[in-house]
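Example record

Each entry pairs one chain with its bound ligand, zinc ion.
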Amino acid sequence: MRCRRCKADAIIDLRRHNAAFCRDCFVHHCHEQVRRAIHDYEMIEPGARVLVAVSGGKDSLALWHILRELGYEADGLYLGLGIGTYSDESGDFARAFAQRFDLTLHEIDLPADLGFDIPEGARTVRRSPCGVCGLSKRHLFNQAASTHGYDIVATGHNLDDEAAVLFGNTLRWDDEYLARQFPVLPATDGFVRKVKPLVRVGEREMAAYCVVLGIDYILEECPMAVGNRHLAYKELLNSLEERSPGAKAAFLFNFLDRAHERFADAAVVDKDDLLRCTICGSPTPGEVCAFCRLQARACAAPDSVPVTLRGAAS
Ligand code: Q46
Ligand code: ZN
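Structure tokens for the complex follow.
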């Protein structure tokens, strides 16, 4: 197997691209895919300050590394979710990466800084852990970015993630979610821009990127993900991809290129009508935002720890 670019011995075969690459050309390929996504979707302009949502997993660490390699000013934010040893270890990987490459890593710890953890919060409000986690991440990443002067929040959602989310949204024909499914969500008053620069690279490529560059990441999946629908959709799409390489990318990019705009009208919240949360100041359709309501209920639980608001490191 020869590298498509330089004809040296290849180390990885990417059937979707009908190509194999040697180590250096594979790294170049990953950088080019991210550069192209950033360009095509106008994600990051030169000089913008980017906050990378860092989980300690392969995708977010590879994303942070690639953005720095491409010359962007990108710092990280690690959010401690309080999910047992998984959170302890993922935080260690994020810190070790930041230290190795001499990068700025901000941290927020849900239990210590906000008084609840994801499993306890989910039990108290009777929602799924991933629902509570998603709400907390959206709120805290946006708030930290606004507070610390970042223009953009970048997340490590890759092609496999986005195709699986699209599959779920399409199964339900959830037009509101389909309207919001795009690699860029523009900034609006009180919300910074959100971008997904890994949309053109798959999970396997990001794992290989970390391995060839010696980037250590947490291998363990979040225990809360076990049995969730997202993983089931990924497995289904993987078996389709096995039989028909490129199927996943075709599904996602044909939607983004040809169908997404047909759902634009389904984005329901009129951001011009939003008020400010009386507790945290975030934009919200009601008096108190969903996150502050969640925090108030979770912290009223008998076994919750006292709230100490330290916010993100500066
Ligand atoms: S971290 Fe959070 Fe994921 Fe764990 S609780 Fe669910 S959403 S599975 S990206
Ligand atoms: Zn609030």
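The chain is about 45% helix and 10% strand.
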